[in-house]
Amino acid sequence: MKPYEQGFTLLEMLAALAVLALCATVLLGAFGQSARALQQSARSDRLNQTARSLMDELDSAPLETGRRQGRWDDVQWAVEVTAESSVAGAARLLRIDLLLRADGREVRFSTQRVQAAGTMP
Description:
Strand order of the largest sheet: 1-2-3-4
Distance between the termini: 97 Å
Number of domains: 1
Strand content: 25-35%
CATH topology: Pantoate--beta-alanine Ligase, Chain: A,domain 2
Number of strands: 4
Number of helices: 1
Order of helices and strands: HEEEE
CATH architecture: 2-Layer Sandwich
């Protein structure tokens, strides 16, 4: 090659294209994985928000022991309220188990609430 000629050889261009293709493959894989993680997070957030809304609805009236179920948009839910302990004339401890099903996923939430003696059904 003469000293005044400039440019890249075919071999250098092929090597650069190979490195570029390798980097693009790695980046596309990372973007795909990020998109899947974002979708999973969005589904999980939706189920958490549904659970919070259902728990808020339960707090709006005195709780009764038993099992209820229903549908919230495309989320199926079932709630079971059981008495943990009860002393005559005293407040009682209630356990609330909430099961949500949507998009092939199943999520369970559990909490406890104290109900004053005057609000028992």
